[in-house]
Amino acid sequence: MKIELKRAVVADIDKFLGLEKLAAGTPIYSAMTEKEDAFNEISKNTVYFIKKDGEAVGNISYEIKEGKTAYISGLMVDPRFQGQGIGKQAMAMIMEELKDMERIELVTHPRNTKALMIYLPLGFEIDKWIDNYFGDGEPRVSLAKKK
After folding, report:
1. Is 38 exposed, middle or buried (0-12, 13-18, 19+ CB in 10 A)?
2. Which of 52, 114, 137, 142 has its CA 20 to 30 A from that of 27?
C-alpha cells in the first residue's frame, strides 16, 4: 500500500476540519475543531493531507522552530483507515523531509499506544510528562529525537 502527502492550503480548511472531527471526542487526541485554529495551523505550519488511493485519510503537520528544531504538531488518521500502517508511512516520509534537523519534538497522550508504537521505533525518546498540556485536563508526554 502506497500513500502520498499533498500540501494543504488555506482553501482546504473545511476538508482539514472534517478529518480532525473524525478523531474528536477522545481524550488521547486533541482534535482541531475551530476554523481559526485550522487557519493558523495551515497558514503558519507545514500541513499535509495523507492520501490513499486519491482519498484524504488523515493529516500530518509540523513547524520549524529556532536552532534546527522541528515540532510535529499533528498526526491523525481517519479511524476507518487505522491499523494499515498509514501513520507509520506518513511519519517516515516527514522524518525524511526533516532529516537535516538537529532535534524533532512532539507530544502525545501517554495512553495513545498506536502513536507511541509509531514514534518510539523511529528513535523518539520520552522527554517529560506534562499535566494538562492542552488545558483539557489530560496529561501528555513530550518526545524528542536528537541527531
Report:
1. buried
2. 52
Mean pLDDT for the chain? 94
DSSP 14: H
Backbone angles phi, psi at 82, to 5 degrees: -70, 155
Q: Tell me whether residue 63 is in a domain.
A: yes
Supply the CATH number for residue 36's domain: 3.40.630.30
pLDDT on residue 91? 97
Q: Examine residue 146 and state whether it is found in any structural domain, yes or no.
A: no
- Please give the Cα distance from 68 to 41 (Å, whole number): 20
Strand partners, 64: 70
> Does the residue 57 lie in any domain?
yes
Domain boundaries, position 20: 3-105
Q: With cut-offs at 50, 70 and 90, classify the pLDDT of residue 27.
A: confident
